[in-house]
Amino acid sequence: MTPLRHKSSLTAIILTSQQMQRLVSLANDSLPKESCALLAGNKSETITHVIDLILMKNSKLSTTSFSIDPQELINAYKNAQKLSMEIVGIFHSHPNGIQPSSTDRKFMELNPIIWLIYSTGLNRYKAYVLNEKTNEIQQVRIIMV
Ligand SMILES: [Zn+2]
Hints:
alpha/beta, Cytidine Deaminase, domain 2, seven-stranded mixed barrel, about 35% strand
């Protein structure tokens, strides 16, 4: 018997309130630019567990979008691997809205891990993942510990 597998059942991300606070500070300190960070940790099919944050420089120097220097990205992946972790999520901030932009969506398709977005204007955060089956963006529950 093949066990039932639901790839789309990735539903929750766990991080500490200190980690969230660091991300919020990063976002506010980076204003007026968008900020970004990688979330390193472990994941099972339903739970993504953030262990460490890798704060990144927004190489685009943009107020409305972000991109990460490829070399910095490679280094981050290597370091995570060395520590037996993987990159399980991407954080970035928006000045206003909290929904993934059309550009975000494109990158979500390339990188279907959890996308955590913090709006500095609204002081709110939400997490999303692209459901590869339905090709729809779905919200992910954030569990703060
Ligand atoms: Zn965005």
